[in-house]
Structures are given as C-alpha cells and as structure tokens.
Write a structure and sequence with these properties.
The protein folds into 2 domains: about 325 residues, Alkaline Phosphatase, subunit A, CATH 3.40.720; about 100 residues, no CATH class. Helix content is about 25%, strand content about 10%. It is built from 15 helices and 16 strands. The protein is globular.
C-alpha cells in the first residue's frame, strides 16, 4: 500500500455554501407542475442496451424509518398484516403492562421520538424473527429523545393510544404526500433491507463499500475485521486522526475507471481538518460524519478525490446544466434527514427539491437518469418482515425505498424483489465498471488492486435482487412529477 500523503487543503466552502442556499431557495420557489424543458420523445434511448441507457444514477439517502412506519398501509404493498375485516393482526408485547400488547396506530404528527437502533436494539426487536421486540427495545435502550428529553422537538413528539410509544406509529399520505405520490407514479420497493443489523454508520459504510469494519492497524486493510457495532463511530475529520477505514470502497473502482462521481453534503460540512466547517460547531447546514463516511476512507486520500465530496450548490447547478455526474450520492444535513426527532415535513421538502432539480433540468438528462430514494436504517420503528441472515453482518430491518425514473417498469408498480444496499453497488458496477466487484481484490481491469479480507462479496449473494430488471427501456417513459416541496 502506498504511503499516506499529506492532507491537502480543499477550496473554501464559504462561497459554495452561499450558492447552495441560493439553489435551495430557487428550487423551493418553483411551482408544482410539469417543467418547461421536457419533450415526449427522449433521444438516444435504445431498449436493446438496457441499463447502458442510464447515464446518471442518483442515490438520495434519508434517516431512520422502517418500511411499515412510512408505507405500512400503502395499497398493494407488503405492509402491516391485517385481518379479513381490515384491522391489524399485529400486537407487540409491552413488558411494562403485564404482558399485554400494543397495536400499530396512525401517527398524524410531523415529529417522532423514534427508538433505539443500534446492534443490540436490532437483536431485541427482531427477536429470533418474531419481529415483536420493538417496545421492549424502546424500554431497555437509550435513544435520542431519552438522552435529550428537553429537546423541543422531543416534546412535540406524541404517543399513541394509552401511551403507546410512537415506534408503533405509522404515517400515511396525509403526513408524507410527496413520498406516496412518488411511490404511486414510479416504483415502490417493499423488500429493501438495510445492509447491516445496526445503525447509521454501518449502513453508510455498506452503502459506499459493501462492508463495515474496524482496522486496528491504520493503512493496513488486511488488519480489518467486521464490526457493525462501533466501526470507529466517533471519528471526525476535525479530530485530525488517521483515516480509520482502510478497506476498499466503490470510489476506488470508479476512480480507476475514470467515472465521474460526487457525494453531496451540506455547505458547512467538515471534510478535511482545514475546512471552515471543522472549526465551527455542528450547525443546520452541515452533514454529520455519521452520514458522510467517505473522508474516513484511505482510498479518498490516496486518489486525491476530496473535491468530489462537494456542497449542495454544485448538485443544483449541475442538475440545471444537465452535467450531473455518472454516480451521485446525496446525504442530508442536520435536521433535514428525518432522523427522529427531526420533523418529517422538513425532510420531505428537502428530498422534493433534490428530485425536482433533476426533473426540471434538461429533458435528455431526465431520460437517462434513475433516482433511488431510501432510508438508512429502521430508527427503532416497527416493521413486520424478518430480515434474511446473509452473513455475520446482516441484513438489517427493512427500510423504505423507491425507484424514480422514466423507465421504472409500468408493469411493476410495487417491486417485491429482495434488495439491500448491495444492489445499488451491483447496479453501479454493472453499468459503469464492466461488472467489477468489491470482492476483496478490488481491482479494476487487473491493474490497481486494493485487497481486503471482507467475509462476503455482498453483490454476489444469491438471493440479492438485480435492479436491472426494475427497468423497461421499451415502454412509454414515465413523465416527471414536479411537486411542491411544502404541500398544504
């Protein structure tokens, strides 16, 4: 492995931050309805080429919601189990009320307290695939609102009937209309499982690398061992410590294939110790290190790709210009990610602006784009579907996910295929990397290996769904759905 280079100084984010704010402001002022740049006949789309028609893959990741908490009552989805009369069959035991149980209820408020969502909480919640330990987990382990009960948002988070914790609450079209509209227009995926049975950092590490580990010897990937509990969870660029993630991530392969990519974050985000965002306290325009693992990968330093971890303003500008990267990830800023007790209204508004930006851009760009909107882990909320155990690390509890694209199959309004975030990596690799995998050798076309001892090639798990079959490039393309970020 090459010797570590000196940390470079990134260009200041101050100007870019202003651009980001202007872009968000402009996006929020645009009216709902069809954009002016779209014609009905997309150019350069050849059905025989399949996913090679996709020039832009966009991954928008939000925080901490289970599938049942957002789409448990969505028509046709594998949602909360019901009886013949439409009432819920589910009743989760509450150990504090003598073994009695509590049912799911419609949570009509925008604030939720949520529950614990670490590795131990996952084991208790899943409870040997009984999926009935959510309330016990809520009582037994800490969560944001238990740790910060005086947070005004926590005070606004209500409980259900007879004091039922809101981990048993579910939302409907009434609270998240834009998400339900996307699901109805495009394709809802009701078997997307988090890649690890744990929390945000492992989920984001899997999203970018197909593994979550700790590496006792810095810069030595062969020292890494699986860890979905504490994979250097408190690491922050501001600390000036060595980058802890020594194994390979997808950007290593993208770099050597010459594929343009970007990971978009808030304008005040701490990426390198010299960034202005590292000197100031965490604020509402920063993406936290939990949602931005890339600065922790040694590959980023070795390939000098720091400027690809970029502020939102660049995303909105490139979307408007029709110059989006081949692969784009968009992580939320603090209080816009829907992590309880964030308001879901603010998160939905942010996502809507990000999606609108693509749909309002050039029609040729939209015609060659696929957007995946998903949530990183279950956030302590109830879900009824047991996750498959594919290796020592996961899967984790099911999360909401959807495909937004002109080519989302019309004959597949709800996709019941089993997916995990590994499916996203597989799609990237099949479209842009000639099927190269993050396989422990991590070598694009036999010239740049970055070996590591990962236990599983997650993209090759036999039960993993292949997203290429979620598209139909011969159909009449689905039109853009430009929505009001703040629906009444």
């Amino acid at each position: 492995m090459a010797a570590r280079r000196t940390i470079r100084v990134r260009p200041s984010l101050a100007v870019a931050g202003v651009c980001a704010l202007l872009a968000v402001s402009l996006a929020s002022s645009l009216p709902a309805g069809a954009g002016p740049n779209h014609d009905p006949a997309p150019r350069g789309v050849d059905p025989a080429q399949g996913i090679q028609n996709l020039d832009h893959l966009i991954f928008i990741v939000q925080e901490n919601r289970s599938f049942d908490s957002y789409f448990g009552t969505f028509p046709g989805a594998n949602g909360i189990p019901t009886k013949a009369d439409g009432s819920f069959r589910v009743c989760v035991p509450d150990p504090t009320i003598g073994g009695k149980c509590r049912k799911p209820y419609h949570d009509t408020g925008p604030f939720d307290a949520g529950g614990p969502h670490g590795w131990k909480a996952s084991q208790v919640s899943v409870n040997h695939n009984r999926m009935n330990g959510y309330i016990r987990s809520w009582h037994d382990f800490s969560s944001t609102c238990k740790a910060e009960p005086h947070d005004p948002r926590c005070r606004k988070a209500g409980k259900g009937p007879h004091g039922t914790p809101d981990v048993m609450g579910y939302h409907t079209f009434k609270e998240i209309p834009n998400y339900w509209k996307y699901a109805k227009r495009y394709t809802l995926q009701d078997r997307m499982f988090a890649p690890a049975d744990s929390w945000t950092v492992p989920a984001h590490l899997f999203m970018m690398s197909g593994w979550s580990a700790r590496c006792p010897q810095p810069n030595d990937p062969m020292s890494c061992v699986s860890d979905v509990v504490r994979p250097d969870q408190f690491w922050n660029p501001a600390d000036g410590e060595p980058q802890p993630y020594a194994w390979a991530d997808i950007t290593w392969l993208l770099y050597h294939a010459g594929v343009d990519w970007a990971y978009y974050v808030g304008p005040d985000t701490c990426v390198e110790p010299t960034d202005p965002g590292c000197a100031a306290p965490q604020n509402k325009l920063a993406t936290g290190p939990n949602q931005n693992p890339l600065p922790g990968f040694d590959t980023i330093d070795q390939t000098n790709q720091w400027d690809r971890i970029a502020p939102y303003g660049e995303y909105f500008q490139r979307a408007a210009d029709g110059t989006l990267p081949s692969v784009t990830w968009i992580a939320p800023i603090t209080h816009r990610g829907e992590h309880p007790p964030d308001t879901i209204e603010a998160g939905q508004a942010w996502v809507t602006r990000a999606v609108n930006a693509v749909m309002e851009g050039p029609s040729d760009q939209w015609a060659h784009t696929a957007i995946f909107l998903f949530w990183d882990d279950w956030g302590g909320f109830y879900d009824h579907l047991p996750p498959r155990r594919v290796d020592e690390n996961g899967y984790g509890i099911r999360v909401p996910s959807m495909l937004i694209s002109p080519w989302a199959r019309r004959d597949l309004p709800i996709d019941h295929t089993e997916y995990s975030f590994d499916s996203f990596l597989k799609l990237i690799e099949d479209r842009f990397l000639q099927g190269e995998r993050l396989d422990g050798i991590n070598d694009y076309l036999g010239s740049n290996p970055w070996p590591d001892p990962r236990p599983t090639v997650r993209e090759e798990v036999p039960t993993l769904g292949d997203l290429r079959f979620a598209f139909d490039f011969g159909q009449v393309p689905r039109a853009p759905l430009i929505l009001d970020p703040n629906p009444g």
